[in-house]
Amino acid sequence: MLSIQSIIKDYEKHRALNNVSMEIPMGSVFGLLGPNGAGKTSLIRIINQITKADAGEIYFKGEKLQEKHIAHIGYLPEERGLYKKMAVADQIVYLAQLKGLSKHEAEKRAKQWFDRLEMKGWWNKNVEDLSKGMQQKVQFVATVIHQPELLILDEPFSGFDPINAEMIKNEFLNLNKEGTTIIFSSHRMESVEELCSHIALINHSEKILEGKVSDIRKEYSKNHYELTYLNSESVDLNGSLAFQTIGNAISSEGKYTQIIQLNAGHQVNDAIAFLMPKIQFNGIQEIIPSINEIFIDQVKHASA
Amino acid sequence: MKKIALIIQREYLSRVKKKSFIVMTFLGPLLIAAVYALAIYLAVNSEDMADKKKVVVCDETHALSNIIKGNEKYEFNFSNDKLADLKSNFDSSGNDYLLYIPNKGTNFEGIQLYSDKQPSLAFVKYIEKQLENSLTDKKLSENGISKKIIEELNFSLNIETIRFTDEGEEDGNTSASYMIGMFSSILIYMFIFLYGVQVMRGVIEEKNNRIVEVLISSVKPFQLMMGKIVGIALVGLTQFALWVILTTSITGIIGQKFAQDKSKLMNIENKVAASNSDKSEPAVAATEVLSALSTINYPLIVGCFLFYFLGGYLLYSALFAAIGSAVDSESETQQFMMPVTIPLIFSFIISTSTVVNNPDGPIAFWLSLFPLSSPIVMMVRLPFGVPAWEIITSMLLLVLGFFGTVWLAAKIYRTGILMVGKKASWKEISKWLFYKN
Fold this sequence. Notes:
The complex is a heterodimer. In chain A, 32% of the residues lie in helices and 30% in strands. Chain A is α/β, with parallel strands linked by helices. In chain A, α2 (88-98) packs across α3. Chain B is built from 17 helices and six strands.
């Protein structure tokens, strides 16, 4: 969908993006993750042609990104808002027209969305008379009304109450099912990792990680397992070729918890076979690293 | 282009539909008409409103009772009492003024006017004038000059000014030129201020609403800025046109209503004529101005007025848009407003003082070419006659100045609108000019 190649963006005193490249596959839900100030918004603004990159290229479906692509991109900025003293419908139709829709078409689609999101009574209301949650629904409609092929959402759930956040999230996922590629940008890794099929991590203006979420997890899982057993006191579990213990066993509520790391070339079964005679098994579970953990790990790694 | 048209449409409609616009559109002419009506009303009724003031005169010359005459406002009573008595009884006498004329010298020396309150200047002048006139008459007749000759001497002279122009000789009238020049320059000044500030407010509003980033993901910042500037210009022109139409029709109706009351009006005229010895001069001047107004080259003036009206607005509103983009709230605009408003106020002051009095002087010449001052200064000069090449140069420079300021403003604007929560300084803004976008 989008191919970003060696983007460099310099501001006066610092480099916001240093040679950033990434591939955003068609139909993916792509998480653009990183702490505040990492360069996410700079990259998004370049994709939206709000600012220009100092170097590098972006291709939209194989074509060099240009003005006509604006009509195919929907953007919900982190700093978002609406005209306070303008009627909801006028506002949505106006923004849709700016994206290239005809007035008639814009009105038709706005009506459909109003039905779908139970906003029927709001047509002629001024935005300032709506609650925050209602305004966000309006903002959502304004973002998607021109049926963009690519949706870019910068911190989409900040400021939403949980109910609206859930509703909007489902609407986004519906659109994704219908074929829309979505870029989620957030500094709260955990908020989007469950939604994303692909992610890229940005830190200090550089991309440090990119790929399918499942692949990344696999790559970064350290073969750690959490083992719980019910013996009355902790057991020394060293001595197996299949695994080694990490740290000491921790006791809580009559259970002991021990982290073990499987050695290369061995299966969980090998470990269980070794452990069976020694302990009263309660359970064993693979520890899957969260994106957050991977990120912290990567950042530490990079600075070390 | 289509997007700019959409933005212009929104900016225009959202403002024209506002209650404040509709209220101002109707209230403006009503206010003007009300002032007009009040002025007529006061002219009609002023005599009835004030009580006659009583003046007691202690005339030691005993020769002035025929010379000092009363009018609708003042009644003079000559008394034979001594000054000291009149003074001590003043409070209880019910008189408002005590005029003391000692018998001293030949030129009425040592006259004093006593009162509780400071008398009006007009009243003092009124007495002085009558005494002066009588003294003049007396001296002239003493020197053998008859009253008839004096009357013949009492004439007023008018110089007709005629300009050589391409179309031959043309009647000119300095006061008419003065009026037209001042009036159009005041209008342009007000328009630039009123609507330039609206552009600035509009930009701040979009920035504050945070809608600006949504917008510029669809349109270029330049389109957004120009759309706003042009849209608001159209609002201004609409309001202006409505004001002209409404004001002329309302004042027309009021004028007619009063005209029906003809006898009363005639009455006032007579009264005014009786009380004013130089009565005919202003009336003559007024008719002269009116006739001179018809000699002015209106197509040129109106055409130039529209050009400078719009040109000046466009140039300044681009600067106002840049200011709006650099700040987060209106209260922060002060420090940036100064350099923009100073040339505006400066050219207004210069044009209403120096330029009207010397419309061909070097100050007038240079300021009418310089784009930041030409819209105001040139309008003052125009009715006095300006060579074509100067007008054309000034217009070209204004167009160039407009493109220059728009280019500059657009650079500040596109960076400024995305700077939220940062207080911009002059230094920072000047850096924005050199940003690659």
